Amino acid sequence: MQPGGQQLNESRKAERLELLTGTAARGPSAVAELAPRRRLSAGGPRPGLPSWTHLLLLLALPTPLLACGEARQLSLPFAAQVHNKPLRCDASYEKIGASRTSLQLQDFKAYVRDVALVRENGARYPLVLEQDGHWQRDTVALLDFEDGTGNCNTGSPELRTEVVGLVPDLDDYTGVEFTLGVPPELNHKNVEWVDPPLDVRSMWWSLTNGYRFLRLDVRAGGNRPYAFHVRADGCTGTPDIGVHCSAENQGTVFLTGFVPGQSRVVFDVAALFAHTDFESSGDGTTDPVAGCLSSADDPECAALFGQIGLGGPHAASGADAFIRVE
């Protein structure tokens, strides 16, 4: 077992490897045989059985590695910070942005999907997510950096600052990649009818526009709200006939210098807002909203979008990056 992995108990590990190797050896037809069991099970997959998408991802792991039992469970840690200080609901942070104003957190959540580790030779291996029925399902995971205390009046006391799953047990991972977003085929569902983690109402915008992929609400200068909500834009149609969006706004982030068991992915709010003038944001004329709600005509979005991988894969690095490895 390499650093950063967790030892599965022997019986559970044997069961999971038997499922992985047996299914992988037989090919996609074996997955198809398992799919009806999932559909007949009320309330989603039975505990211990991967979902249909989960099984497809397991097949993506190289069969020789699985056959040798060379897979490990990995916890990928995330952290929200302001410079080098933890981002907290009960704190105030000074001299933030171009306006050098104070800042308080109100809400911060994000959906990540298609998480993968990258080897030194550039090969990518998907992190096959643990199906916990609450924070993670199929390829999607929810991160929650606020605990409902202090300035965060969200009614959401639980924190979630990790993504957990299986990867081949290799010792030359040097990077991590993920997309901030929700798979397009899941983005236009009714929040009342879906399973966790897509059942969080505060992350849902509408049937047509789908979910907020990242929601960051702060208060600047004492009592001035400022919002950064990343979602699809220019969407038309309805879920029953199909929805088309001119901008999906799902950015892929690729980070180098990542060492499993030693590194974490940091979201640095001070770096994100380094050039933001909170005092002039949302003037009511050219800029009707204080912040960015992902509208194409919002003048504040362009500078923020570049930091979350929009406009092509974003190789964020260095101490001044919003999303970086530490």
Notes on the protein architecture:
The chain has six helices and 22 strands. The chain has helices spanning 10-26, 28-40, 52-60, 63-67, 269-272, 301-305; strands spanning 5-6, 71-82, 85-86, 93-96, 101-119, 124-126, 128-129, 136-137, 140-144, 162-168, 173-180, 204-206, 210-211, 214-220, 224-230, 233-238, 242-247, 251-256, 265-268, 291-292, 314-316, 323-325. Strands 4, 5, 6, 8, 9, 11, 14, 15, 18, 20 and 21 form an eleven-stranded mixed sheet that branches. Strands 1, 2, 3, 7, 10, 19 and 22 form a seven-stranded mixed sheet that branches. Strand 8 (136-137) and strand 9 (140-144) form a beta hairpin. Helix 2 (28-40) packs antiparallel against helix 3 (52-60).
Number of helical segments with 4 or more residues? 6
Main β-sheet description: 11 strands, mixed
Gap from first CA to last CA: 23 Å
How many strands appear in the DSSP assignment?
22
Shape: globular
Which ranges are low-confidence, i.e. pLDDT below 50, for 5 or more consecutive residues?
1-8, 12-50
The number of domains: 1
Mean pLDDT: 82
Strand share of the residues?
A: 35-45%
Fraction of residues in helix: 10-25%
Order of helices and strands: EHHHHEEEEEEEEEEEEEEEEEEHEHEE
By secondary-structure content and strand pairing, the structural class works out as: alpha+beta
- Cα-atom radius of gyration: 21 Å
